[in-house]
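User: Fold this one for me? It's FAD-dependent monooxygenase.
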Amino acid sequence: MEGKLRRKVVVVGAGPVGLAAALTLKARDVEVELIERDDRPGTHSYALALHPKTLSLLREWGVSEELEKSSVTVSHLAFCDENGPRHELDLSKVNGHDSGLLIVGQDHLEEALVRPLERAGVKLSWSHRLSTMQQDEDGLDLELERLSEGMSGYAMARLEWQVDKELHTQADYVIGADGHFSMVRRKLGIEFPNVAPTQSFAVFEFKTDFNHNNRAHIVMGEEGTSILWPLPGGYCRWGFEIEESKAEQFSRDKDRLFVQVGAHGYHVLETQMLEALIKERAPWFNGSIGQFRWRMIVRFEKRLAESFGKGRTWLAGDACHLAAPIGMQSMNLGVQEGHLLAQIIADVLDGKSGADQLEEYGASRLKEWRSLMGLDVMMMETAVTSPLLARYSDRLMECIPASLDTLGSFADLLGMEIVPKE
Ligand SMILES: Cc1cc2nc3c(=O)[nH]c(=O)nc-3n(C[C@H](O)[C@H](O)[C@H](O)COP(=O)(O)OP(=O)(O)OC[C@H]3O[C@@H](n4cnc5c(N)ncnc54)[C@H](O)[C@@H]3O)c2cc1C
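Assistant: Here's what I get for FAD-dependent monooxygenase.
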């Protein structure tokens, strides 16, 4: 890199993790540039439950109040079979949890995080894509593409993103919060292997009069795990784990529409599929099925990066881990690690810490994720485990809103213990 820069960090990706990192850097008086290839924050609920630790960060950033106004709270997890709840977990009893889960759509979360950045005058470059980067011991050179919408196609004209300008920028450090297909991770040559089988979920969000009683209902059965979340405004989300072949069977009719999320097309699912899944797995669900606002099949890969960064470039969030959806771990722990990484980089830039702290960040994050993904430890039944949880003990770790420091407490409350994996 030509010439030594002072105190500038480029954050790639304005998802919740990149936004969290940018807010933390700004609070530490570090110059931040946030680069996002899309032209606005996300538009769907995606990861909709905030863990207590994420909520306390939002309080620190002064954005929790507006979110809390339009949210609902989950105080208990109810583990169910086809006959109803079999084991309840009171989230207020988890060590280190001072509250339950706050249910807020990811779209609202992202919008709430963007506002203070805009107010603080942080450079937020929407429609800018990182195309390449090079690092040396002094810093980084990055090439960006500015995107604009244009018409293309001959027989059928369609709107698509085109590069209208190429730009160059420099930074002391880069945070790669650019999601599952991270360009930053790929540029570093870091492998991102599958660590467990992919799961597919049929997801339905609709209005209902079901009385959730502040519970998230987790239904365990031979067909897979299903989850019922209460949502603000009288809506709910059912997510049913399904086999891919079954998804195909329900998606063959000609009149089905596609919805577009990012670059991906998803089938819109039929009400009849929802009714059949409820009848099969949760006949106790006595709520009405009202207006739909979102229904689709989503695939969740489970991947873990072999390292979380090197030199002056470090990763956080989906760029380095993809977890199962029910415990909402990938986004929540991602926001927390975006914050942590930004603090460490600010400390290094302030001369308060050495660069070895970044290596420590990578090692500790990897250790936490290896545990949560069941690669190093597992949950084992004890004499007091309920039969339902004992039967599906291998699925429990991914269903709980845990981090490494709360895993033991969750296990106690489930009547399980954490043991090293052979
Ligand atoms: C349909 C759907 C349903 C989901 N449901 C759940 C769920 O039920 N539970 C759960 O836990 N999780 C769920 N998730 C996953 C959850 O949304 C992610 O874990 C979360 O968004 C991760 O946040 P992130 O900031 O790490 O990455 P992202 O939110 O993916 O943000 C990354 C950002 O980087 C940008 N970007 C990528 N490449 C570049 C580049 N080269 N230059 C500039 N910008 C770039 C992208 O446009 C994106 O905005 C769901 C996701 C989807 C798509």
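One thing worth pointing out: The two ends are 46 Å apart (CA to CA).
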